[in-house]
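Re: beginner question about structure tokens

> Can someone show what the tokenized structure looks like for a real chain? I only ever see the sequence side.

Sure, here's an example I had lying around. Input first:
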Amino acid sequence: MTAMIEAVGVHKFFGHLHVLKGVDLTVERGEVCVVLGPSGSGKSTLLRCVNELEQISAGRITVDGELMGLREVVKGGATVLHRRTDKDIARQRAKIGMVFQRFNLFPHMTALQNVMEAPVQVLGLTKAKARERALQELERVGLADRVDHYPGQLSGGQQQRVAIARALAMDPQLMLFDEPTSALDPELVGEVLAVMRELADSGMTMMVVTHEVGFAREVADQVVFMDEGEIVERGAPAQLIDTPRHQRTRDFFAKVL
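And the corresponding structure tokens:
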């Protein structure tokens, strides 16, 4: 069985700014990988590269054994990489659910309509089938009684749970979370983390960029610490959080714990 995510020698430049510096990372199927580190360390950029929201500058990333954003073509006995078409990249992205810092819900649509939209438009489901799936996912995130509410009628935590339901309605193989609680008031963080815990318990493969060290300690199979575009160290939560090997990691946890 291939790993769900495999990043090899990944570099990312924004102009002259070297944001990712040769990142290697493997996330196995069914694993929860939590990425920690200071702001500006490259965590979110790495996540966006996995989903092809950012094009890598060098290296390669595979998801479910398929090379993301690129395809191998044999020419004259040599293998060269070509950029995939936008349509093919969209097909790849459809297998990956992503939840952002901001909820990005359509304000003129109800919770139910927000969750139904992509299965109809991208997967081609009938409205009846999409509605059935959307109701299931909204119930899964504890919002069965809010299906007809508009985003403006929901709390931040409820809106983020709608965003999670929207991603799940696409039946993804992998879920990516980019600081999903950082825009929430402290009292609303717990309800979103509870949904993520349940997802982890269900066996969903997850890669989570967050500042929630408690969540990492409780739920992660693998914790990765990044700083200045590099993976400084990785390991089981108890090892990396409680007894980190590197001084940079120790300094980080001394400040946040």
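Each token stands for a local structural state, so reading them left to right follows the chain. The chain has a mean pLDDT of 95.
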